[in-house]
Amino acid sequence: MQINSLVRAASVALLATFGAASAMAETPADPKSVKKDDSGKYLDAKGDPTFNVAPDGAVDWFTYSGYRRYSSECIVCHGPDAEGSTYAPALKNSVKVLDYAEFYGIVVGGRQNVSGGQNKVMPALGDNKNVMCYIDDIYVYLRARSVEAVARGRPAAHEEKLPKVTETEHACVGDKS
Q1: 63, 51 in Cβ contact below 8 A?
Q2: Which pLDDT belongs to residue 42?
Q3: Could you tell me the pTM of the whole model?
Q4: Residue 60 DSSP one-character state
């Protein structure tokens, strides 16, 4: 994990602990990428992770990875392609109003909404390495789906995965290979 990610994670955890995350939430920035970091990750004007789709339809590595991670960890509750289900909301709509910090805080700490006789619970996934090591990827994929930049289903083509991304993954999941 990069230092910025660690600082951001600590900040979000503190805000969530004191109940201030939603009170301080900002609207998400325009998802247009304005910068690419040395790992190949695209960033918006606020510096939050975002997607990039080439003119030929190929997505960046992180959007592709986000699709894969979403499909293995989130689909059960939130439905295929972030479209929602009778059990949980469409995350492609949620990221239209949740900025990265609020999204991160909800994933890490969970959330419970009780209204209209319903009790909706998002479990805390802060200890799940299959989510946390790829949370940026999942967010990027959801942002792409939120503006229909990526169609339903598996992206047909994607950028290559850079060696630096593989190193970061191995460090996060604790893989020594």
Answers
A1: yes
A2: 94
A3: 0.81
A4: P
Coil vs helix vs strand at 62:
helix
DSSP for residue 154? S
Q: Within 10 A of 156 (CB to CB), how many other CB atoms are there?
A: 11
21 pLDDT more than 50: no
Among 12-16, 104-108, 173-177, name the most confident range.
Answer: 104-108
* HSE-CB of 48 using CA atoms within 13 angstroms: 24
Q: Do the beta carbons of residue 79 and residue 73 sit within 8 Å?
A: no
Of 150, 165, 125, 151, give the one whose Cα is nearest residue 39.
165
Query: Domain range for residue 29?
Result: 3-173
Q: What is the count of structural domains for the chain?
A: 1
Sheet (strand 35-36) strand order: 35-36, 42-43, 49-50
Sign of the C-alpha dihedral, residues 128, 147, 27, 32? positive
**H or E, element range at 147:** none
- pLDDT at position 155, please? 92
CA distance 136 to 12: 14
Predicted confidence (pLDDT) per residue in 109-151, tens digit: 988 876 776 667 888 898 999 999 999 999 999 999 999 989 8
Cβ-in-10-Å burial (0-12, 13-18, 19+) of 54 comes to exposed
